[in-house]
Amino acid sequence: MASEPMHRRAQRGFVLAMTLWILAAMAVVVGLLTLWSLDAVRNAASEREQVEDLVAMQGTRDTLLYLGATRARNRAGLPPEPLSEGERARRLLDDFGMFATGPRGGEIRLDDQPYRGLAAAGFSLQDEGGLFQVAVPRAEELQRLLRSQGVPADVVPRFTDALLDYTDADELRRLEGAEAREYRRDGRAAPPNRRLLLPVELARVQGWEALPAGARARLPGLVTTFESGAVNLNTMPEALLPAWIAGCPENCRRLVERRQRLPFASGREVELLLGVTLPGDSAIGYRFLASDTLRMTVWGRSGVAWRIHVRFTPIADQRGPWSILAAHPVSRPPEDAIAQPTGSSLFADAAPARR
Predict the structure, then answer these.
(1) Are 53 and 302 in contact (CB under 8 A)?
(2) What is the pLDDT of residues 88-113, one digit of tens each?
(3) What is the CATH number of domain 135-220?
């Protein structure tokens, strides 16, 4: 049998090589298409999750607005269920419509406790009357706040003077403060010489970037620019309590444990329980019923949380039942913050969505 010509063998080898190359190219194309398809499916699932979260967050926000406008707050927080006619009659104290403010049970707490909202959303409510008030800051209270947050005592006056110069209406510089000339020298915009508009504005105060990292991260969540006057020890965040309560952390822990069981009704109750003297006038400097201004924080499974400052005005003449004062994105609660169920049928779809 005659041997196959050399050129025939070369042709067959070339065809085999081309076939292998084509098969390899097809495998690469199929692999790339598979990866693209998987990526598209992941993106579609992520986009669907984002849409679902947005709907759940908006529904949670609207439910909270409804509750805030239609439920009478008491010392324990915001009851999700309305008063029955019998309970309303029992709570009526006089003909002027004053009601007893003791707890009913099942209230949504107003001290930033995380709760489960609709579907996969979470939320917390904070009475702004329980926050440190920087709308019209006072030097003594501001110094107490900074010391309670771990700022060394020898540098507290520097931060205090800087904030007071930032918010006062004049151009007179305090001893360790800063006015327009000092801001321009550091390449900053001049201070507005007006009250703070939002807590995050603290970051614009000259020198406040030198605060200890922990204090710098905590302070925007502990202050309010929308309330002034008496402070609420029933809703004050635990991290803020050392600014008002001596003997912490032990006394702060005792106060929190007691108010969760039975909210305080007066400053005198706090002083007797803890054996301390509250700063200022314990009779008029403190409140124990939430203010009309609440801070709502709402979040989904991913992304940032949204913080909404709301003032409820249900009896204002010819006005809506609430006013949105501000809304802005904030960091989500820490992973170890356990969201509690509200127990309300208004949030009844929260549990199935998490299975």
Answers:
(1) yes
(2) 777 676 555 566 788 988 999 999 99
(3) 1.10.40.60
